[in-house]
Structures are given as C-alpha cells and as structure tokens.
Amino acid sequence: xxxxxxxxxFRAAAQPSAYEGKTIVDVQFPNGQPLDPADLARVQPLxxxxxxxxxxxxxxxxxxxxxxxxxxxAVEAEPSGNGVIVRFVTTHALFLGGVTVQxxxxxxxxxxxxxxxGQFSLGTPFHEAEVQTALSSMRRLFDSNGLYxxxxxxxxxxxxxxxxxxxxxxxxxxxxxKYEMPAINGAAKLPDATILRATGWRLPxxxxxxxxxxxxxxxxxxxxxxxxxxxxxxxxxxxxxxxDYDAQRRRVRPNLDIDAGPKVEVTSxxxxxSHRVLKRYVPVFQEHTVDDDLLNTGRxxxxxYFQSQGYYDATVDFRVQPVQxxxxxxxxxxxxxxxxxxxxxxxxxxxxxxxxxxxERMFMQPAGLLILRHGRYSEAFQRKDEENITNLxxxxxxxxxxxxxSVAPVTSGxxxxxxxxxHIDEGxxxxxxxxxxxxxxxxxxxxxxxxxxxxxxxFAEVNIANDRDSLLTYYYTxxxxxxxxxxxxQPIEPGHVRVVYNITExxxxxxxxxxxxxxxxxxxxLVKKKITxxxxxxxxPVEETDIQKSLYDLxxxxxxxxxxxxxxxxxxxxxxxxxxxxxxxxxFSIGFGLELAQFGTxxxxxxxxxxxxxxxxxxxxxxxxxxxxxGLGHTVTFQGAYxxxxxxxxxxxxxxxxxxxxxxxxxxxxxxxxTLNVRTFASKREEVSIQLSQKFNKSLTGQFQFSYxxxxxxxxxxxxxxxxxxxxxxxxxxxxxxxxxxxxxxxxNPHHGMYNTVNIGVSAKYFGSQRSFARALVxxxxxxxxxKNWVLARQTQFGVIVPFSPPAGVDxxxxxxxxxxxxxxxxxxxxxxxxxxxGPRDTGAPLVPDGPSSEATGFPLGGNAxxxxxxxxxxxxxxxxxxxxxxxxMGNVYSSLSDISFRFHQNNPQDFNYxxxxxxxxxxxxTPVGPIRADIAYxxxxxxxxxxxxxxxxxxxxxxxxxxxxxxxxxxxxPQSISHYQFFFSIGQTF
Length: 991
Fold this sequence. Notes:
- The protein is α+β, with helices and mostly antiparallel strands.
- Helices cover 17% and strands 39% of the residues.
- The longest helix is centred in the N-terminal third of the chain and has 17 residues, at 214-230.
C-alpha cells in the first residue's frame, strides 16, 4: 500500500520505475519541516548519495505521518544530472495553542465555564468541526443561564511557525431572562405559593422575579426537595422537565413534576433518642430516599454512637411499618444495656515498637478527666485499631504479625469499668538478603533515588510500592514518559528474600521549544525568568508543573494552562505550551466593622478616667490594588481605614522576586496614621520607607528597612506636656532590621515548636533624624505538647530604648518622642492591664523650669524598657472544639533599662517600675480562621496612682504652692487604681 501511495504521488516526466535505484542528489521540504533534526533522521531514511528505493519512500511517508506533525504528505521527484531530487510536499498539522473568551462576561457563566463548555484540550490536533461542536455546547450553557440572546462569534488565528491555532470566542451576552410562575404538575400536596417560596426564584415581600442562572435553577429544585424534607417527606421527587422561554417577554417558565410521597417518620423505641440524633446518624434524611441499605447503615451508625457513649452492649434493629394515613413509620428498636467506662487500654507483646508509638495510631482511648468521660470504644474502633497496627507491622517486615484484642471488666474499678487488652504476636521480621535493579542504562545506580528495599532492610510490599513511585517519578522528571517498572521477589530461606526490580526505560524525550501565549500587558521577560525548561532539556512533567505553579505565584495570571504539543506524536523532541490568561489588574475591597472595648481615647474635657472608658467604635476600610504594574508583576496598593480610634492611609509599591530571587522582595511605602489608642495623647505619623524582605529558609525570614517619618502628638491633655518641646513634630530617620524564625506546627493554634522575633533599629542624626536612640525588641515563644491534647505555651518579650545625644535642655529619657515609646497592656500582651495602660504615668512635673509643679493626672506616658512573660496551659474543656486556658502574665513597661525590677509590691503611688502579675482563665472556640477567645484576668498587684477629676483648665489653677485650704475643691487629689479584673474578647491565640 505504501508503494502504491508512493507511485501515485511521484511526479516526473518519466515512469516512476525509471528513478528506482537512481542516486539521491537532494531531499527537499519546500514548505519547510517542523521536526527536530534528530527526529527527522530517525523517521525519514532517504539520504543524499543513497539509491532511491520505493520501500524507503513508503517508510518515510509512514514515519512522517507517525510524528503527527503533518496532515498531508506528497512526494515528488525531479531528475538532476545522473541523480534525482526528492521533494516532500507537506501540509503541516495545526495544534490548539489557546482558547480565549472576550467580552463583558460575569458570573453564571464565567469565562472558565464558557471555555470548559468547548471541551478543548491544549496542545492536541485541531479540527474545524470542533468549533461548531463547541459553539453548540456554549449556546446550551448560555441558555441554561437565561442568556438566550447571547451572541458568540468565533475567530481563528494561525501561527504557522509554531503550528498553533488560537481560538477566540467574542461574546455578547445580551439581557438575562427572568423566571415566572413555574408550571407544577403531579401530586404536590403543598400549595403553589409554598413551592414557589421554596424555589427562591422570586424575591419575598417585593415579589420581583429573579434572573435565571443554572445555579439558581438547580438550587430552586433542591429547595423544593428540602422543603419536603423538612416535612419528613423523604420519598418526594422533584424533576425539572424543561424550561419554556418566552422571547417577547424575556421570561422563563420552569416545568416541575412533583410527587410528594408519604411522610416518613423515624422513631426509636425502648430507648428515647432525640430527632436531632436520628437525623444525624440515619442517612435517609441526607439521601432523601428510603431503602434497606440506608436503614442498615443507620442501624450500624446508631449502635456505634451508643457504644461511643459507653453503652458497649447496645443492640439496634429496625422495622418498617406499612403506610397509614399518608405516613410511613420506621422504628429503630434500641437496647442500650449497661453503661461502661473504658478505664484501661493495655498493649502486650510489642517489642519492636514502643507502646506510645502504637497508641498514637489507635482510635480507642481511655476515659479522661474533662473529655471522653466514658472513653472512646466501639467494635468498629476495635477492629480498625487491630487493622492499623497489623498494617504497621507488615510495613516493617513482620509479614506474619497477628493482632488480637479482648474486652474484660476491671474488678478494681467502679461497676461498669472495663479494660481492653491488645495482644501482638509479632512473629519474625522478614529481611531483604539480596537486592538488584536491572534495565538501567541511562543513569548510574547511585544516581537513582534511595530505595526502601535494600539488602539488610525489612521486606514489605508497601516498600516496593514506595520504591516504584519514587523511581518512576525520577524517570518522568528526567524525560522518560514511557518508563515501565516491574518488581519480583522470592524467598531464599524462611524470613529472607531476594528482590529484583526490572526497569524498561523507553525512549527519552526532550524539549524542542517552550511556547508562551496569551500575554497582552505582561512583559515576556517576566515570564521567561520563570521558564526553567530550555530547548534540549529532558522533557520533565514535574518541572513543567513546577513552572506552572511559579507562574501562578507571580499573582498576575487568572489561569495558567500547560500542555505538551502533539503529545501522541512519534517524536522525541516536543514543544511545551504555556497559555496564560492575565488577571484583572484592579482589585477592590471594602470592609465595615465595629469595635467594643475599654478605649483610651483622649478627652480634653474630662481627666477623671486615666484608665479609659468603655466605648463603641465603627470601622470602615478600603483597599485598592493595581496588579502587574507596567507589566513587570509589580503591585501598587492603597489601603485606608477610618474609625473614631484610628485614621490610616498607606500607599505601597511592591517589587516581588527582586533580582530573580524567588523569596526576595522590595517595598516602597507612604503612610499617614492618626491613632487615639492612648488616653494621654493622639499620635500622628507621616512616614516614607523602603523595605527589603528575604526568606532565607522555610522558617527564617528577614526584613531590612529604612524609614523616614515625622511624628507628632495632638489632643495632649496633660498640662506638663503643654511644654512646646513635647508638642513640636519630630523628624525620625531609622534604619532597622527584623528577623523572624517560625518553627510552629500550626501558626493559628500551635501545639509544639518555637517562634522568635528580633527587631533592632537605630535613629541618629546621620540618618537625618532630630532625635537619636537605639531600639531593640526581642520575643521568644515556645510550645510543648503534654500528652495528646494538653499544651504548655510560654512567651517572653524584652525591649529597650537607649537614647543618646539628646537636644540641649532635654533629659535623655524624655528625648524619646511619646509615639516612639513602648506601650503594653491588653489581650495580646499583658492581661493585667487594659489596652496600653501599663508602665509609667503622669505624676506631676514643673510647668516651666524651676517653676511650680502641676497636679498628677495618672495618665500613661509609655516607657523606654519592657519586660513581659506569659505562660498558658491549654487543655480540652468541652468536646473537641472548646479549649480551656489557665494563664499567668507578669511584666510591665519601665522608665528605662536600669529601672527594670522584679519587685512584687508598689512602693508608692508614684512608683510604676515594678512587676505586675495576673492570673486568669480563658476559653478558646476553634474556627477555621483561628480560635475565638474570651479571657478573664485577675491582676494580683495592680498599680495605684493619683488622678484628677476636673478639666485641664481647672488643673492649671491647682497651684501646689498655695495652701490646700485656699485651693478650689476640684484640686483635691483623686486616688485611683487599675481594676483587679480585666476581660478580653478577640480572635486568635494570645501568642
């Protein structure tokens, strides 16, 4: 057949037989050829200088067709001197390089759903008929979503150089139809209005019909089923027969066939069981149908439920009563028997594994003090534990291991106390005596990944399976997609085996080129930095998907598709395709919230509450981001927050992957912040900064920052601070570094590991700063698991600010601006105090140098040193989701490093440099975003201080040089103190 094909397309003046045996002068491809030279040499045997033979031409045609890169091949011959020129006149095959949907397309359907409806496969051969098939599927998709007027206009773009076709579907969705009153057929047994409300196809109260979408249509049918389910009509059926569309009115009428069926009443006899428990464990409620399989499953579930409650002898049976008065009754007969308590779980016969390692793999658990009051036991758990331990021994070479367990009463305990004894007969351990790998020609054996099966190692089938996976992955990664693996083993003597792996490597495949499609805004250079596959590299599916992941990590693409072009073609050099869909460049988010707390908001009209007052603060936030700025993957973000406590606006410019390094970024920032979280003053900050971030390894991250800011205070309500030098804005230039080491197992709720941070900064005149000081803040937190569910967590924080070169006439410690000092107190630091209430307070000071002193107000001033230590014991409290915490906090904010003291008692109302302690109890409720927590703390030795009950103007009239009887009544000092009791409510662990 090949010869006939050759003769039929051989075009020359002479008879074809006249060229047989002629010397080939040249082999030409007038239309070009897409094959790599290595593939061409392999599939096309005709070479210049060799005689022309018809069978070689046939083989060439078959070989070229086999590559899949040609849709048509014709061979022509032309005499040249004493030889012949052979020409392959070809038509190249085309492959799908990408599918794009353009137009204003929102949800229902979105672009991904529209593309998916076409069922195109990237990199596969393209056929014109596929477009029409895709159009039909897309139109059905639009119709099901009420877009009956949608227009879809396909366009095809060809790239002959890469043999790719790019399909673009231009979509105009038109107006979406609305529902109207459905046609209801069958035995509904419910009023039409009730069924309509269950569908959700019409808005309640205002009675506006909703727009049609496939999700809403399915939800409406399910809503009707749920309505019947709530009425215990579990046998109800609701079928959407069709959707009738009225084009003139742009309305859709759903046609529903409904059979309500009888009510199904599931009850229990002998033992009372709540309807909630029955609905949870009898699956007829979830499946909305009744059959013997589901009822039997419910029987098993209920038996295991009662066994988990300590009724280990519980028996459950069921019977179905005939339908009477439109009700089908299912009765579960439950005999609980005596209630037991699993008080002891014993494991015997284990030598290879320690008991603790085995207990970690078991479901059964003895009763605890606060949880599992009756232990955890059931026959299913017993069988599962036997199976798990048997599998563990098998995986470690104990092929003959047997695990049995028995249950017996514990005579020394209370009535109903039982113990479970699990006995392990380990048997002998099988070992690999001889191991070999055959068929490896492309690699050295020591280059292959380590094998679990090796001479001297335990023998187990699971090890062979693991080796198979690792070896095949290694070969796939290095370009061997057709590699095959076979393993065989045979006993040498009892307990000793010989293992042989046989690998058939197959032909190696390489990358011919990497084709990137779909870029419009993004620069090619940004993407190419992520393409680690180069022409000539082994074709690695693993590396191909790693590149896909790294492209997603850029954060600028909504979709990244990758495929091998012509995957089934007989070539060893293939193109890799990446089709990219750029994400929307702008993202917006708006948030609203409410804060309830004891706020320290400055109030210039009243000085009577230095510790703050309870209040409510509405909160609004706005975030706008411009992704992929300049097509370089950079991000510009504006963030704003507004509340009665804080007004904040920031503009950042982020350069990720700086210098092509994956975990390095550079950020430029502008910040304005006006915060009123300290009772004493409002803090205003205007800042510009640059920060270099580097992730050194999995646990260690560093940030290096230079910031230049203007800090000032306003709403100052302490007269001593009316001295101009405290009101003037201060320019701060600071170079700082922050290192973070995170080795916690779970950052949201850690059970073991550690968390360390070190922040060091220097502000000095040579940085353009008007104040000079060095600042350091160190934090160390560790977590220890005590048993299976108890955690001991501790945290220590130490901070110090060391001023130097103070301005003339200003004390060194006072030269540190108020907003730059340390503040502490609150749910996340020191629970002995309300928010930011720890540390030094206003005790009165000269109004002017050598002048009279003001009255003390007791308002917090912050400090230049900090020491806090927190210890928490976290334990199960109620069920699996509620955790209890007992805690002890100690520490304070101090005037300076030399003032840090561990004294327990306050010497006088002017002494704040001592250690304050608090103990308390908290509750944590586990949620997907972290635990919700509530803490109540008792401050053992809170500070007392002298306050003032009047206004700032009145305070100025209280001259302490005058006799007390000549001063107004409001000048009488007001002794105050921090409350012994503090309450906090927040989200997340304290540390």
